[in-house]
Amino acid sequence: MKIIFAGTGDGRGIPAIGCECKRCMIARKEKGKNRRRRVCVIIKNRSGTIILDTPIDIGRIVNKYKIFDIAAIFLSHKHWDHIGGITEFEWWDAGKIPVYGNMSALANFETTERLYDRCKFHVMHDRESVKIGHIKFKAFKVNHKVPTHGLVITEDNKRIVHFSDSVELSLNDFEKRQVKKANLVIFHTPGYDGGTDHIDVVSVMKIAKKHPNTSFIISHIGHNNLPHEELEEHFASYKNLRVAYDGLEIKI
Ligand SMILES: [Zn+2]
Ligand SMILES: [Zn+2]
Ligand SMILES: [Zn+2]
To answer: Does the predicted TM-score (pTM) go above 0.85?
Structure first.
C-alpha cells in the first residue's frame, strides 16, 4: 500500500497564524519542506483511498491528490487540528463515506443534515477492528489529553502502527509488541526535547534505537521543533528513522 503524508504540521501548522518567529518567517519565504499543513495521512491501495484525520486543509488536500473516491475516514481524536475539516464533506457528492472515530471525536463537531447525508458515522471502541477492503484497522487507546485512538493497520503481512497524538515516553506491552512486528511506526512529535504534551523527537530516537528492524517516521511537527534539515542531520546515523514532510510518499 502507498502512504502519503499530505500534512505534517502540528496543531498550528507552519507557518503558524500571526507568528513572526524565525521558523515561520522562513516557511513563508522558502516554502519547501519547512512548510507544513496540519496532519493528514492518505492510504492508497487496491481497496481504495482511506484518510486518517481531516484537518481544516482537507479540501485542498483532496483536490491536490485528485481524490474522487473515499473508502473510509478515520478520526483519531477530538482536537480540531485532526477533525476541523470534516464539514468540508458536506459538499461531497461521490457516495456516502464511512467515518470511524471514538465517541469523543464524533460528538465534537456540529453535524448538519447535509453532512449526515454524505457521511455515515461509526463509533469505534478501544481494540476494535474494522476491515476496509483488504486492510484491517485496529484501534488502540493512546495516552493523550483527550480520548485518542492509535491505529494498527495491516494488509497481508504488512503492518503500520499510527500513534497519532500521544504523550507516552515509554511503550506499554501491547504497543511494544505492535512496534516490534511493524514495518512502519508513525509518531507525532511537535517538539524536539519536551516542551509540549506529546512524545518528543528525543524519545522517538530512543525507541528507534531499541527496535532496529522497524522503520519510524515522525510527523505533526511544530514551529518550535528543529528545521527539517537539522532533524535529518540528527537522524543521519539511524537507518530506521526519518522525518515526514508534506508530500512524502512511501510504499509498504
Ligand atoms: Zn494534534
Ligand atoms: Zn512561529
Ligand atoms: Zn491532540
So the answer is: yes
pLDDT digits (tens, 9 = 90+) for 139-197: 999 999 999 999 999 999 999 999 999 987 678 899 999 999 999 999 999 999 988 88
CA of 35 to the centre of ligand 2 (A): 11
Nearest partner of 14 among 50, 51, 41, 39, judged by Cα: 39
Total structural domains within the chain: 1
In whole angstroms, give the CA distance from residue 97 to residue 46. Answer: 17
Question: What is the 79 CA–ligand 3 centroid distance (Å)?
Answer: 5
Give domain status of residue 252, yes or no: no
Tell me whether residue 251 is in a domain.
no
Asked if the structure places residue 250 within a domain, the reply is no
148: domain CATH number? Answer: 3.60.15.10
Shortest-distance ligand to the CA of residue 188: 1
78 C-alpha to ligand 3 centroid (Å) = 7
Reported as type and span, the H/E element at residue 6 is: strand 2-7
Ligand nearest to the CA of 20: 2
Domain extent for 31: 2-245
Ligand 1 midpoint to CA 168 (Å)? 15
What single-letter amino acid sits at 231?
Answer: L
Tens digits of residue pLDDT in 52-108: 999 999 999 999 999 999 999 999 999 999 999 999 999 999 999 999 999 999 986
Question: Beta strand 184-188 with 48-52: parallel, antiparallel or unpaired?
Answer: unpaired
- 192, part of any domain: yes
Is there a contact between 42 and 67 (Cβ–Cβ < 8 Å)?
A: yes
